[in-house]
Amino acid sequence: MSRVDVKVPKGTRDLHPSQMRVRKKVFGIVSEIFELHGAECIETPVFELKSTLTNKYGEDSKLIYDLEDQGGELLSLRYDLTVPFARYIALNRALTMRRYQIARVYRRDQPAMNRGRFREFYQCDFDIAGEHPLMVADAEVLSVLCAQLNALSSVSTYHEQLLRPYRIKINHRELLDAIFKLCGVEEGMIRTISSSIDKLDKEPWEHVRKEMVDVKGLDSEIADKVGEYTRISGPPAEMLSRLRQDAPLTALAEGALSQLALLFEYLQALEVDQSLFVLDLSLARGLDYYTGVIFEVVLVSSTSQVGSIAAGGRYDNLVGMFSSKEVPCVGCSLGIERILDIFEEAEKNLATSKAGGVVRTTATQVLVTS
Amino acid sequence: MSRVDVKVPKGTRDLHPSQMRVRKKVFGIVSEIFELHGAECIETPVFELKSTLTNKYGEDSKLIYDLEDQGGELLSLRYDLTVPFARYIALNRALTMRRYQIARVYRRDQPAMNRGRFREFYQCDFDIAGEHPLMVADAEVLSVLCAQLNALSSVSTYHEQLLRPYRIKINHRELLDAIFKLCGVEEGMIRTISSSIDKLDKEPWEHVRKEMVDVKGLDSEIADKVGEYTRISGPPAEMLSRLRQDAPLTALAEGALSQLALLFEYLQALEVDQSLFVLDLSLARGLDYYTGVIFEVVLVSSTSQVGSIAAGGRYDNLVGMFSSKEVPCVGCSLGIERILDIFEEAEKNLATSKAGGVVRTTATQVLVTS
After folding, report:
1. pLDDT for position A130
2. Which residues take part in binding L-histidine (chains A, B) (predicted)?
């Protein structure tokens, strides 16, 4: 038999015993905190019907892995854990649930494995489904996310330096839509212009503007107006007071602005550190399904911004796409791979320094002799 | 937006909080025992290059899920955890390793979900790679498997009744090949005739004979001779002594018979209950990669045989298909789904009887109020 090419698929990797050890520890901490906050664990299939994933991810849909048509249903690997959760709620006719799920998702993205960007990677999701008083569930999701990040930061003093400081960028889909409307962006172009704006954390304004005008055909004056609004960010209280001075915007986005104000009141009541938050009008989140508050957590090092480690938001219409009963939802997804990479590196250094170079990879207590 | 068909793919299912609770407990027990026996945990990607899985599974290859060619590599979902492990050993140039892996595998089989037969299901694998004195690793794999099953049986007195008794069928690929040769089966037909013989635990001799003669074109006299040999089974010591009286067979299968005798000596030394074992000459295991001892564990109820819950064997040439360095391996795979189904059912009954019908599904201790 001829020898085949021995490698793993592009953008994937084997996880070795030393890595699994760190993962088990981290997943244990994460699960425990979710459960202490009343979340129940579920597991959904690694693939869904292709139709379940269709029209949920906007421009990112091109990254979905499809399975070959082998004479059965048309299937796709899950792209995230949010759409499967909405499908779960609809299928099981649940009207209320707090669930967490720790599982791998699949994206045919350009991998950058040295920066923790894979095609197969773990996410830890926490979501609250069901009717609740305005902003109560949203505030709770954010407070659980902070509890999560704080717990992970405190695993050891060694880790503490590694996960801090982090910052939570907040925006609201309705506020963003109001800005687009005010600037003159046509209804049908809002989602694609959103996707461009969302790149402002990685690309300079000139690139984003060029994409909007040259590629997407946005009028250049409209683009400039959009740029003026979306390039501002700052502490939530200051930002909200500043935006309230903009009468035309306030008229269009009264609901969103009140919701954000209420959210920060609740977060204060929940004793979540307010200085972690930034209201950032460039945060758009590319996915189609968000309807209300959206957020993203970034690690901030002294020299550079390391990148996003968590994200989420409210999605009130997704369950309704699968069911006659609308169930409002809000949730967050912890992109645990980057955190794990940081931990693995730290563990390795710690083990090497402690054991004089010898890393112990198992918890062996008894060896069967034979 | 039109509402899509809301269901999970055929042969898959959502796992609910109550099921996840049982799974976490069982996987915890399984992991702990593997680790106490010196095994290290790894994780491999859910898909492999299609070429990695080619020519490993015999007639079962048709059950492999392929991913659509979306302009990258040709990929397939893993069919088991054994071939990915051999690929892991080759890729990481390991010469010796004891590994365990608990993960889901994928088979486009006809699902029978009421009998625990899914298209996506968990396996718990334990394998020993590397050179060892004859039969030492084989005996250890079997003793760990028994330790595993005994531990799972002893989770509670309630469960004890459910997993016992089990029986371990043993055979040897070289012994089976010798039988085929002795009966006059041509070299090129051995694997396909093996697959037919392997069905003798589920189908009557007449069906199997018909398949061999009518479908596969085996001479009917040869088929009858094969039938005479492969329909015998019994306690290993008795069977070995009986087979040794067959001089032509002993001449052809001297190595296999000595290995089996040595294996049972080691199992006795390891204090594994000998009465669990049956030497069953119809056991063939369809997969192409086995080379030596093969085995299968079945649950035996007082009224009927419930089916296979574990299987494995020696595969000395598989790593060599991925590497210039041959690394002999032996391992077992615990088909944990059927055991989990039995446990879930028992937990449900237990919880209902204890709580008067109220099942507690989470470990909630603190509820955040907001």
Report:
1. 97
2. 80-82, 107, 123, 127, 285, 289-290
Identify how many contiguous H helices and E strands chain B contains and give both numbers.
Answer: 12, 11
ipTM over 0.85: yes
- DSSP string of B80-135? -SHHHHHHHHHHTT-S-EEEEEEEEEE-----BGGGTB-SEEEEEEEEEES--STT
Window 223-282 of A: residues touching B by CB (8 A cutoff) are 266, 269-270
CA distance A275 to chain B (A): 20
pLDDT digits (tens, 9 = 90+) for B204-258: 999 999 999 999 999 999 999 999 999 999 999 999 999 999 999 999 999 999 9
SS (H, E, C) B52-72: HHCCCCHHHHHHCCEECCCCC
Contacts of B361 in chain A (CB under 8 A): 40
| A272-304 pLDDT, tens digit each | 999 999 999 999 987 889 999 999 999 876 555
Confidence of residue B172 (pLDDT cuts 50, 70, 90): very high
A104 touches chain B (CB under 8 A): yes
Q: B8 exposed, middle or buried (CB, 10 Å; 0-12, 13-18, 19+)?
A: buried
| CA B103 – CA B79 distance, rounded (Å) | 11
**Which amino acid appears at position B289 of this protein?**
Y
- What pLDDT was estimated at residue B367? 44
Q: Min CA distance, A206 vs chain B (Å)?
A: 32
Cis omega (within 30 of 0) on the bond before A165? yes
B9 contacts A47? CB cut-off 8 A: yes
- Find chain A residues with C-beta within 8 A of B363's C-beta: 35
pLDDT at A367: 44
Contacting residues of B for A135, CB less than 8 Å apart: none
Contact B46 A6 (CB under 8 A): no
Give yes or no for A134 touching B (CB within 8 A). no
Predicted local distance difference test score (pLDDT) of residue B358: 44
The sheet that has A277-280: what strands, in order across it?
Answer: A40-41, A97-106, A120-129, A329-334, A305-314, A293-300, A166-172, A277-280, A233-234
